[in-house]
Design goal:
about 220 residues; mainly alpha; homodimer; about 5% strand; two-stranded antiparallel sheet; DNA-binding
Amino acid sequence: MRVGELSRRSGVSLASIKYYLREGLLPPGERTSPNQATYDEGHVHRLRMVRALIDVGGLTVAATRDVLAAVDDPEVPLYVALGRASGTTMDPGDQDETQDETWAAAERTLAAAVDERGWAVSDENPAWHTAVGVLATYARLGDDDLSAQLGLYMRAMEEVAEREVAAVVDRGDRARTVEGVVVGTVLGDTLLAAVRRLAQQHCSLRLLGETPLRPRG
Amino acid sequence: MRVGELSRRSGVSLASIKYYLREGLLPPGERTSPNQATYDEGHVHRLRMVRALIDVGGLTVAATRDVLAAVDDPEVPLYVALGRASGTTMDPGDQDETQDETWAAAERTLAAAVDERGWAVSDENPAWHTAVGVLATYARLGDDDLSAQLGLYMRAMEEVAEREVAAVVDRGDRARTVEGVVVGTVLGDTLLAAVRRLAQQHCSLRLLGETPLRPRG
DNA sequence: ATAAACGGACAGTACTACTATCCAAAGAAG
DNA sequence: CTTCTTTGGATAGTAGTACTGTCCGTTTAT
């Protein structure tokens, strides 16, 4: 199939396909002549992935490129790509932010919670840095209820992660498995956030009899 | 205090403070003369909120403005503001997307899961639309493991939301309470996602003996 | 009295994600 | 075989976001 059909099949504009090709999100088609190429079902699927990651997962084009590179290349560690995938990674470039007492206290809080749960995680995981950043920010805002919920969040996420990891084991070829992990992680973030909003609506209705903070639309 | 000090105290540049004032994220200071104003602790706190929502929560300036407007004005329903706060709200403007069979099937899946859990939620909650969108996207990608995890996600988020709502009841004045809800919801999304990544690392290490998908950095 | 700070307006910048135009070569249709 | 459309590739332009810089006429501190 040629680009025109690829565009029609995927619903992505020709101009955008050319853009994704340039940016390395979509692998080049197979050459049939020095300046002509054909595309296959893999390209259609890849375009669907790209749109899902960008539109639903909220990734940037650059983050999508990195994540998909990790899917393709077994050499790129997946957690590095998934780290970049979390939009709010609070890049460790902000040295001044990480060098104060609030930050250190937040890091101790997280380390203690992780130890208590018996988690084996490394502080090289970008998520560690993000979590510490959120805790520190919350502390600076004065209310520290969030860090009080940390244990709860960890318990809930451990249960979720356990099932997710179990579901991913023995899935056939490596590419398919990694793709499943990526999509599940990125789209899962969005779904979890949405489900949390729904649960909050249900719980505030149940616990308060009515919902003073969120009147029915 | 005047802007100079406000800038020093909050760590936000003068130019950005002027920008936030223009955009309505920061209320104007109290006038001391036709073209002079003073600012108080409330402004320092507000600036910290703004930076937290933008830098840590990943909100846009416009979303931050809406969310803070809901904190200030009891007339604006909170769930509307928090809906806009979820970056990936998949605005209901995409009529074509919502009019196909995949979308309808995803909506039935969610409705069934919600009924089974006995949740009282309305499909006017923006999160409903987001959740359906994620489910539909996942279905279009071919793997439907995510919707298989839906029940698990709902159980986990119900437990989380229950504690969160309980923690927020009886908190003093309305403004403080609403602020707590907003910060907890927005920063909570980021924290939950980070904790999930950490849990995934722990679980893949525990269940697989080692971590083939995410070699240690 | 003089220098610094202020408010307000507005132009400019860097980045992101496309979108449009142009061209020469390749394919398809009559 | 010619004409029309499509393609690949390069490059320029656009719209939106989040600032940043500059100017100007007060205003306030020293």
